[in-house]
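One thing: mind reviewing this one?
=====
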Amino acid sequence: MGIFERAALLPLTASELSQARQIIALDGVCIAHIQRQMAIGWNRAADLAEAIVGRDALPEVARNRYDRRR
């Protein structure tokens, strides 16, 4: 995914959501950690985290980066 693309353009899969849920449950919400563990891009990791915990629970850096994309 590119920086201006949203998950709606490339839907999140059940497998991705499951894997990201496990990472978040064990290690907390860290976009970079999800990115490294799943070998995906930062934006995809942020989309997964947002789908799981909601935008308000994202780390501040992720919320700020999303706000700039609007």
In short: The chain has a mean pLDDT of 85.
